[in-house]
Amino acid sequence: MPLTSPRRSALVDQVIAQLRNQITSGEWPVGSRIPTEPELVELLGVARNTVREAVRALAHNGLLDIRQGSGTYVLATSELAGVMHRRFAGADPRHVAELRSTLESSGARLAAERRTDRDMAQLDALLARREEAWASGDAGLFVAADVALHMAVVAASHNEVLVELYADLGDLVAEWLRTDVGTVLEPSAHLDHARLIEAIRRGDGDAAAAEAAGYPYACLGGGRPEPRT
């Protein structure tokens, strides 16, 4: 005999689907606090227990973080991203940098081979937005613009598997960058990305890959690791 009636299960699933859509669409960005339980009850027109069950399910899947006394916050944009966040949140930053370097370098090389005119227009716009964010002095705005540019570079690879994998890692990367950059933009935090975009534009895969490979290590405050002999 089921613990809950099919009707109730279906209602909870519908609420989960609506809340998940708010997250995956970007309506509730990573790091933001979602509406309170009473607010969700009013917005959705369902019982408090239904809302609570849906929120707990999304927290269990890694999309939400329930903080007692503070509220519930968006932790990741997909279940896989949530798993990756929990698994690697405490990882050595250099190991995260190595993974980023591998994915971003591969993405940039493919982007140089496959980019379209539309891709280049998007990259140019995001590069300009990144520079504007830096000039504004707003660290949060700069991190968001930086992540968006790197996402667009990988997206220009037109490799759906690589794009999805990098997107799921993106939430962790953004959190790591927010911690690394801090609240004040220091000159050392600014890395010129114009050479990367130009390498992609002229179809130079080797140059694009080399540029992209070095950024994650530079964010750590040092150069690329010395090759082992």
UniProtKB/TrEMBL annotation:
Keywords: DNA-binding, Transcription, Transcription regulation. GO terms for molecular function: DNA binding; DNA-binding transcription factor activity. InterPro entries: GntR_C, TF_FadR/GntR_C, Tscrpt_reg_HTH_GntR, WH-like_DNA-bd_sf, WH_DNA-bd_sf. This is GntR family transcriptional regulator. The keyword Transcription regulation applies. It comes from Streptomyces globosus. Coiled coil: none annotated. Pfam families: FCD, GntR. Signal peptide: none annotated. CDD domains: WHTH_GntR. It comes from the Bacteria. Residues 9-77 form the HTH gntR-type domain.
